[in-house]
Amino acid sequence: MVGPYRELFGMPGAKGFVVAGFVGRMPMSMLGIGIVLLISALTGSYATAGAVSATVSVAYAVAAPLTGRLVDRYGQARILTPFVLLHGAALTALILCAHHELPQWTLFATGVVAGGSATSLGSMVRARWSHLLAGSSRLHTAFSFESVADEVIFVSGPTVVTALTTLVDVYAGLVLTIVLTVVGTIAFALQRGTEPPARAAGAASGSPITIPGVALLSCVFLAMGAVFGSVDLITVAFADEHGTKAAAGLLLGAFSGGSLVSGLWYGARRWRISLRRRFTRGLAVFAAGISPILLIGDTRVMAIALFFAGLAISPTIITGYALIERLVPTHLLTEGMAWISTSVGFGVAIGAWAGGRLTDTFGPSNAYVFSLSCALAAVLIGFSGNTWLRVPEAGHASA
Predict the structure, then answer these.
(1) Torsion over CA of 367, 263, 181 and 220, rounded to 10 degrees?
(2) What is the 3-state secondary structure (H, E, C) of 152-214?
(3) Whole-prediction pTM value?
(4) Residue 201, pLDDT above cutoff 60
């Protein structure tokens, strides 16, 4: 299983941009829960915490395609550095506003700037792989590796930020988030040798979202993002309700741990089933895996259930990115992949907001019904429009 992954790193420059990209996007699993833990600790309200977290996610979701278009037009390095510096400054301002107990609107205002200046570094890492491996079947393995890397981040990130926030200092988690984001992103931007070329000035500039398959995938990932956002927030409240708030990171880590294991297995295999069939089957398994968590009232059992619930995440996301890579013209690839990030971001915002409201009103166990409903919506959308996802497989495309 290791062999296909080892071959990827024989390419010049691959190790450098992968490591820098990993560090730079580590905070993507830390930011939301870090904000929830900080704001809920200071205000005592999960609804307020969810609303601030949702504001950051919405701002990111709105800005991500625009940032992707700028990257396609001017190149990664010229856009990443100023954006990440603004992002770090905005998060620092958010922490200061919370610390000094300034009016709530200041939290939302700084959250808008922080989200709007965040960059979809995962999309840019995948764009580099697409540039290096265009038309090769190894691109499946590269995308699988990046999804596994994402899951390592989602396993470790919530645990780290929860431990820092609950055991060290309420601000420590977000401070580490800022440091990792700025250092990793700048290190990634400085590696120019593997950077995809910027789009020529006269190249067509239509938006990838007008492609039916991309629009369908965006809707599916909107629903999946709502699952992720709601599960993140509700699980924190679930652990708190059972007197083990510090275990929230471990529970969320178990959710991502299942995805990590399945991603390693999925990427090492050579598949004969078409991408669209893999995608719809992954969605069905994802919804089935979410169902049992509604019935669990024990933290240890919940960890096991969340692990199995996460098994379908990586295969579905890997296949979604592979479909985007086939559906979108090369000169619009970063923007095309950013639409996935945008959709997940909007979904996470919806999920965090709804999860907070439902948790405050009905309790965490009942609030998980919302997560299951969103998973079922993803299945319905994916199956109803799967004919738009017909694409040539890797070997056929290059031929």
Answers:
(1) -50
(2) HHHHHHHHHHHHHHHHHCCCHHHHHHHHHHHHHHHHHHCCCCCCCCCCCCCCCCCCHHHCHHH
(3) 0.76
(4) no
Query: Residue 3, Cβ neighbours under 10 Å: how many?
Result: 8
Q: What is the pLDDT of residues 152-197, one digit of tens each?
A: 887 788 778 888 888 888 888 888 999 999 999 999 999 888 888 8
Q: State residue 161 phi and psi, 5-degree precision.
A: -70, -35
Check: CB of residue 364 under 8 Å from CB of residue 36.
Answer: no
Q: What is the pLDDT of residues 114-146, one digit of tens each?
A: 999 998 888 889 888 888 887 677 787 888 788
| Residue 23 Cα distances to 125, 241, 287, 340, angstroms | 12, 33, 31, 21
383 CB neighbour count, 10 Å cutoff:
14
User: Angle of helix 172-189 relative to helix 76-99, nearest 10 degrees?
Assistant: 170
Phi, psi of 6, deg, nearest 5: -60, -35
Q: 399 pLDDT band (50/70/90 cuts)?
A: very low
- Give the integer Cα–Cα distance in Å for 96 and 90: 10
CA distance 154 to 177: 13
Band the pLDDT of 368: cuts 50, 70, 90.
very high
Please give the structure tokens belonging to residue 300. Answer: 């240890």
Q: Which of 348, 335, 313, 89 is nearest to 196 (CA)?
A: 335
Which tokens hold the place of 81? 């550095």
Dist. CA 56–CA 352, nearest whole Å = 11
Q: What is the DSSP string of 344-391?
A: HHHHHHHHHHHHHHHHHHH-HHHHHHHHHHHHHHHHHHHHHTGGGG--
